[in-house]
Amino acid sequence: MNEILSLVHNVVDWGMSMLMELGAPDLIMAGIFYALAGVAVLSALGVVLMRNVVHSALMLTASFIGVGCLYIYMDASFMGAVQFLVYGGAVAILIVMAVMLTRRPDMAHSNPSRGIISQIGAAIVAGIFCCVMAFVALLSPFRVSLADGQILGDSVTGIADLMLAKYVLPFEVAAVLLLIAMIGAIILAKRNPKEADEL
Amino acid sequence: MMLDILHPFEIGFFDIMNFAVHVGLPHFLLLSAVLFAIGLFGLMTKRGIIPALMSIELMLNSVNINLVAFNRYMPMQDYAGQLMAVFAIAVGACEVAVGVALAFRIYSDRKTVNIDDLNSMKG
Fold first, then answer.
1. Is B18 part of the contact surface with chain A (CB cutoff 8 Å)?
2. pLDDT 10s digits, B79-93
3. Is A102's CB within 8 Å of B64's CB?
4. Domains, chain B, ranges and CATH?
C-alpha cells in the first residue's frame, strides 16, 4: 500500500514540476485573459448584430461585466467594482428603461441596421481602424510591458489619496458635472406642460 | 514577449505562441482596439437612437481598458491612470443619462426613435 502511495506521490510531483517547467501559471493566466476577452468581444459583437434591442441591452451588460472582470485581472479591483456598479448596474438599467419607455410596434425587429452597402462600408472603416491601432500597438514602445508585476500598494487607498489631495479640483468638477447632468436630464425628459395640455 | 511585425516572415510559430501566452500591455491594447472598432461599426450602422448610445458605451469602455492597462503595465508612481478612468466613467455616466433623456424627449415629441427621421431642427 505504501509503495503505491509513494508511486502516486512521485507521479504527482513529476507532473507538477513538468507543469511548472512548461509555465503553467502563465498558461492559466493567459487562459483567464482569453476567456474574459472572449466574453467582452463576443458580447460586444452581439450588441451590434442582434435584431432585438432587448437582447442587445442584455449583451451590453454581459460585455460590461467581462470588461469589469478584466479590470480585476489587472489588479485594479476598485475599477472593477466601479465598472460593475456604474456600468453593469446603473447604465444597463437606464438603457433597459429607455428601451421600455420607447415602444415599437414589432419588438423582434426593433434594432434595425442600415443597408448592406452601408454595413460593408462601416465594416471596412472599422476594420481599417482596428488594423491601424493594432500595428501602432505592436510597433510603438508599448509592445513590451516595462513594469510587469510592479507593486503600487492598495488600489483603493492609492486612488483615494490621489483623488482627495492632488486631483481634488477635477473631483469637484466631476461632482458638479454629475449634478448638472442630472438636472439637465430631468428637465429634458419632463414633458413641456403646455404641450401636455394640448395633447 | 514581443513580435517584430516589421519582418513578418521571420516570425515563427514559437514566437507567436510565446507572445500569446505572456499576457501584457499589447494584448490589452489589441482588445481595446477590437472593442472600439466594434463600437464604431455599431455607431455607423444602427438606425435607432438607443442602439447608437449602446455603441458609444462600448467605445467608452475600450478607452477605459487602455487607461487601466497603461497604469498596470507601464512604470508608474501612483494610480493616476485608474483615477483618470474613474473620471472617464463619471463623464460617460453623465453622457448616457443626458442621451437617454434626449431619446425620451424625441420619442414623446415625434413618436420615433429612428435617427434618419430626425432631419429637421424645428420640432
1. no
2. 888 999 999 999 999
3. no
4. 8-117 (1.10.287.3510)
> Can you tell me the ipTM of this complex?
0.89
Residue in A167, A79, A89, B56 with CA at minimum distance from that of residue A175: A167
DSSP letter string, A77-119: HHHHHHIIIIIIIIIHHHHHHHHHHS--S-GGG-S-B--HHHH
Residue A118's contacts (CB-CB under 8 Å, 6 or more residues apart) are B44, B45
Each domain of chain A, given as residue ranges in start order, spans 1-110, 114-141, 154-199
Option in B20, B26, B37 nearest A143 (CB):
B26
The pTM (predicted TM-score) of the whole model is: 0.87
- Interchain pair A44, B96: CB under 8 A: no
Mean pLDDT of B29-44: 94
Cross-chain residue pair B50–A95, CB shorter than 8 Å: yes
pLDDT of residue B18: 80
Cα–Cα distance between B28 and B25 in angstroms, integer?
5
Topology given in CATH for the domain delimited by A1-110: Four Helix Bundle (Hemerythrin (Met), subunit A) (1.20.120)
Please list every residue in chain A whose beta carbon sits closer than 8 Å to the beta carbon of residue B61: 63-64, 67, 87
Interface of B with A in 92-111 (CB under 8 A): 92-98, 100-105, 107-109
Q: Please answer yes or no on whether B102 and A30 come within 8 Å at the CB atom.
A: no
B123 to chain A: closest CA residue: A195
Task: For CA atoms B110, B114, B116, B121, give the dihedral sign.
Answer: positive
